[in-house]
Amino acid sequence: MSFTYGETELPVDRRLFVPETIYVWDDGWLVPLRRAEQPEEWERHVAADLAVITATDEKERLLPGATYPPGKGFIPMSSSSEPAMMARMIAELELAPGMRVLEIGTGTGYNAACLAAYGAEVVTVEIDGTIAERARKALHDAGFPEVVVLTGDGEQGAEEHAPFDRVVATAAAHTIPYPWVRQTRDGGRIVAPYTGAGRRFGLLVLDVHDGEAVGRFTGFAGFMPLRGQRLRPAVVNYIEDWPEVEVRVTSEGQTPTLPEEDQR
After folding, report:
1. For residues 161-194, b (16+ Cβ closer than 10 Å) or e, as one string?
2. CA nearest 172: which of 197, 194, 196, 203?
3. How high is the pLDDT of residue 263?
């Protein structure tokens, strides 16, 4: 099972990390698909170059007033990202062996394993304790026990393990947290999905110098948001895509800059 983006290949088998139970859409609801009961269907979903939903709002119900059928959810809460997109983000990181990488959003642990297989020293942060523990076990069983899995709010980074050469997020932000910038070495890079002022569903690549991060978008990237940065669908729908936009993140905040012709 191999996935690539350009010359970047994911060097780890995804099946080692996807849970035995995933969730698929059925009549408007996310319903469980269990490997033990439907092995061929589970394999088909995991082998596809698509995101695989691994947790829903079945317990943390985010649809006020709705009647949730037993065992069903409506909103994805965690997933194994689309593999080609993962490979693209790894390519944007421009990794070199021995680099120290902070990953925001551990999920299944698959992305952390791929980073480690490329020779990175990986620290990954997951906000959900149950998901973090499952990823920790999967990483150990797959031969990557050196990956450090922390349970906590990824927006705060991992100060005790900083500084990092690279930061990569697997959940979208509308505001890049300054701790990510502060914990990145001078000359380092941050790669994160972004949905906010100036761009919906963009992949933001920021280079860090002198305590500031500056960068631009390199294409489309549709990800679930950081849990602390959820936007209502109506807000997302009204975000305008500027043709060119530079994003600057400093200790004073974040500034998206319009193209010169739109500033007149």
Report:
1. ebebbbbbbbbbbbebbbbbbebbeeebbbbbbb
2. 194
3. 45
Token output for 48: 């596809």
Active-site residue, selected from the candidate residues 79, 80, 81, 251: 81
Domain ranges of the chain: 4-80, 83-262
Cα torsion at 136, 87, 157, 181 (round to 10°)? 160
Known catalytic membership, residue 2:
no
Q: In a 10 Å sphere around its CB, with 0-12 CB exposed, 13-18 middle and 19+ buried, how is residue 126 labelled?
A: buried
pLDDT band at residue 262 under the 50/70/90 scheme:
very low
| CATH code given to domain 83-262 | 3.40.50.150
> pTM (2 decimals)?
0.89
Between the alpha carbon of residue 113 and those of residues 8, 25, 107, 208, 252, the distances in Å are 15, 28, 11, 25, 34
Distances (CA, A) of 212 to 183, 234, 258: 11, 31, 18
Q: Beta strand pairing status for 100-104 and 121-126?
A: parallel
Task: Provide the residue type at 254 as one letter.
Answer: Q
